[in-house]
Amino acid sequence: MGFSIQHLLVVLVIVILVFGTKRLKNIGDDLGGAIKGFRKALKEGEEQESSTKQDEQPK
């Protein structure tokens, strides 16, 4: 039992009526910024980890 396009449209209309388009835009911007920050932190952590491993290798 899956969701059809009609079900998704009804849910979208209800969400827009409850929150309003301006609030949904703000939520989307905040969520996008959070995801971007998370990805940046993961990338920095991987770079730091790889540089630490290189420093620990015997010469």
UniProtKB/TrEMBL annotation:
Nucleotide-binding recorded as keyword: no
Subcellular location: Cell membrane
Record-linked InterPro entries: TatA/B/E, TatA/E
Keywords: Cell membrane, Membrane, Protein transport, Translocation, Transmembrane, Transmembrane helix, Transport
Residues annotated as signal peptide: none
Pfam families: TatA_B_E (PF02416)
Database matches in HAMAP family: TatA_E
Record's subunit section: The Tat system comprises two distinct complexes: a TatABC complex, containing multiple copies of TatA, TatB and TatC subunits, and a separate TatA complex, containing only TatA subunits. Substrates initially bind to the TatABC complex, which probably triggers association of the separate TatA complex to form the active translocon.
Job description of the protein: Part of the twin-arginine translocation (Tat) system that transports large folded proteins containing a characteristic twin-arginine motif in their signal peptide across membranes. TatA could form the protein-conducting channel of the Tat system.
Descriptive protein name: Sec-independent protein translocase protein TatA
